[in-house]
Amino acid sequence: MSIDETQVRAALEAFGDGASLDIANERIDLLRYARSRITAQHGEERFRVRVRVERGGRVVAGSLETLDRVAVDALAAKLEAALTIVGPGPAGAAVAGHAGPPTSTGPQPAALPAPTTADQRCDWFRTIRAGLADKAALGGSIRNDVIDRVVANSDGLYQAETVNRINVQAIAEQDGRSVSFRTLRADPAEIDVEPIAGQLLDELGDLPMREKASGTFRVLLRPQAALTLIATYGYAALGAAGYAENRTAVAGRMGEQVVSDLITLTDDGADPAGVPSRFDPYGAPRRRTPLLDRGRLVGVVSDAKHAAVTGGVPTGHGVPLGWRFGADPAPSHLLLEPGTATEDDLVTELGEGLIISRLDYLRILHPKDTLVTGTTRDATFWAADGQVVAWHPQVRLTFRLDEALNAVLAVGRDRQCGEQPFIESVVSPALLIDAGPFTL
To answer: To 5 degrees, how large is the angle CA 326–CA 332–CA 334?
Structure first.
């Protein structure tokens, strides 16, 4: 189902003054595989309408899975009734969403990347499997989301775009050990599956398994692990609400050195290195927002409610109504500037320590201290004398993100793109971190 502008405008009329709509039509195609065989080829379509109505300081919200007029009128009647019951918000309080006159992010680019086809996804799987031959079992998935988005309100705002997201994951398993490849791109032409099997087999290698290390040591986070760390730090520390309310590690420190001077971080929803999208759920343009400049805090991301922190202009980082990660504005498209070190350079400088290819997750234990816990997954190695010498058992790590980012010794040259549940895309190189934050 495409998003019909006539239906959108009719819905706005039905909901009346103060109405705003956040609409997404998502087409999902998913190929899953395990033990070198396809286990599922799945496609579905989801249509979701978030409705918000604000009048006289009173705010009500609801949701639909259609723009059919009967359903729209039924919800409109319920929201009208709710407006007579709920109390007004604090006098003069700003809302989190769109504020002020309608804005425009400009037209959608004329040429959008074509999504993958079912045959293409199967061909990618077969190419990787053939490259592995019988040397390792292949698991993973190829997912392609095509999302038509519209954000509109009764003040005349109307924003529309289409986002294409292709996520490829390949996991090679051999004798109880696993290595993985992951990438997120907007254009299938940017995904080359031919070398993937060779990369996976090279990493599987024939190294011995050592015992779990103990003590404090250096850590090399390869790009897919580093982007998890960067995304979690951005979410925990770089939003305007937490900054204004003194709830984050960087609150009150604008202009100060907060992490290593090797770290320069930007949020940019238009940068093609990530997977671009042009506006937030309230139609505010996603503005390029420098966050860390050689370790100094130079910005945070905001929505309309917290725009005072960003010079009175929201940066376009409002989050959806009822978002399971909270109501605070949050980074959406983080990009960490690369350094000059190759992976061989980073391993040499690591000397002795842990090499982490992937962090399964990082869970925030204490936001203001940026204290997190998480586990490694796939291809965790031990290095000695600047050489990879052994597999290392998977480990749980508990550490402070700010301490890890303060201890960065080198930044890799080559970046990779990925995602997290709370962020649309992250682009990061590898990070070499000194001993201190990580102890086993």
So the answer is: 130
